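Design review, sub-item: ligand-bound model
Attendees: FS, YL, KQ
YL presented the inputs for the adenosine-5'-triphosphate complex:
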Amino acid sequence: MTGEIQKGSITALIGPNGSGKSSLLSLLCGLTLPTTGQISLNDELLTEIKRSDLAKKLALLPQSNPVPATLTVSDLVTFGRHPHRPWYKKMAKEDKEIIDWAMIETGINSYSERLLTDLSGGELQRTWLAMVLAQNTDILMLDEPTSWLDISHQLSLLKIVRRLNQQYNKTIVWILHDLNQARQFSDRAILINEGQIVNQGNAKDVINAKDISNVYQTPVKMHSLDDLQILWPEEQV
Ligand SMILES: Nc1ncnc2c1ncn2[C@@H]1O[C@H](COP(=O)(O)OP(=O)(O)OP(=O)(O)O)[C@@H](O)[C@H]1O
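KQ shared the predicted structure:
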């Protein structure tokens, strides 16, 4: 089945553990090569785009990142500029402006000189997001960006990403395990099961009780809460 990510949209990759979401994201980023099929970006085959050029078009926030002990917040965000300047060149005014912008957009500018090891989980995740943002790409790929965050920090991060999409027309592809959040914060969804795309389209259509029950092998119902519709497991303990 052919899958499509629409420019300027937020697309959620959803599916059970081990269904192939991270593998698909890795393929979309050119980190792994497809054994069959093709992936193209704006009509150009991904395999024909130089890695250094690809890094100017898309940025990936992986699922887990080791925390370098001696680095500060601004050091890490500066790494985001790497694809845009050779290691031997000093940072230009434009690099500094983009780094400052990324830190302001993610709300981390007030602690830019703190060590990464001194940050809370929520602060650290926003710092990683700022680093990815400093890469200044049109496309952001985020692998489970809200895992390990409490509900308030999850919402804060989801809102930052949605603002980046709406204000700067960033194309977002993210993996989210919370199906209600995926439904609420994404325009589109791709439902994956056992390495296959089961359904794709408008997030509100794809994330429906019937398909989710089937794919996750867990009966769920859709409930209305004010104007919000939420999925809830049918069986309560
Ligand atoms: N490097 C690899 N070599 C071999 N098999 C792999 C490799 N990476 C992942 N897999 C397998 O591919 C399948 C899909 O894994 P993947 O990590 O893409 O799933 P996922 O949907 O992202 O899962 P989760 O929600 O648990 O993160 C799994 O069965 C996994 O064991």
